[in-house]
Amino acid sequence: MKKILSFLLFATILFTFSKAQTAVEKDVHFNFKEANTSLLASNASYTGKYSLAYYQKDKAYYEKKVAKYKKMKTIGIVLSSLGGAALAGTIAGTVVLSRKADWNDGYTSGGTTYYDGNTGAAKALGMAIGGTFLTAGLLGPGIPLAIIGASKSKKYNAKLSGL
């Protein structure tokens, strides 16, 4: 008897899962805008109350987004400007240090070459490498922040003015 009940339970579960997997999925779409307008059209007493509330909610949302992306754009412009200044400083500093450097590290006296180790070439190289990393660290995030901030700010400004 237990075998028959176990078999029936197993068959029922198998049948249920097989039907659940072959069920046709339907996309359900609900348009909130149409539902809202139909609600407002059917009951005139809601019109003033709900449309003003939705307008104020949307307006506040878009104003917050515009302020956020304007701030992002400003930060991007500042970082990009600092990166440009770092690039100019790196180039100028490397050129100055390179000209002052003694690229001939040793001197010869009496057939023997002596090395003094004080060339200044390491300073020029350090300036170039450090400045490159600083420039990349400022320009890298600055340019995308400025571009994304400007485009999103413009997008939400257009939506705000369309309300």
Q: Roughly how many Å apart are the termini?
A: 72 Å
Number of strand segments: 2
Helix/strand/pairing category? mainly alpha
Instruction: Report on the biggest sheet.
Output: 2 strands, antiparallel
Helix content: over 70%
Number of helices: 4
List SSEs in N-to-C order: HHHEEH
- Give the overall shape: flat
**Radius of gyration based on Cα positions:** 35 Å
Uncertain spans: none
Average pLDDT? 78
As an assembly, this protein is: single chain
Strand order of the largest sheet: 1-2
Beta-strand content estimate: under 5%
Mind explaining what this structure looks like?
The protein has helices spanning 2-22, 32-42, 47-100, 121-161; strands at 106-109, 112-115. The protein has a domain at 58-163. The chain contains 4 helices and 2 strands, in the order αααββα. Strand 1 (106-109) and strand 2 (112-115) form a beta hairpin. The chain has 163 residues and is mainly α. 78% of the residues lie in helices and 5% in strands. It has a two-stranded antiparallel sheet.
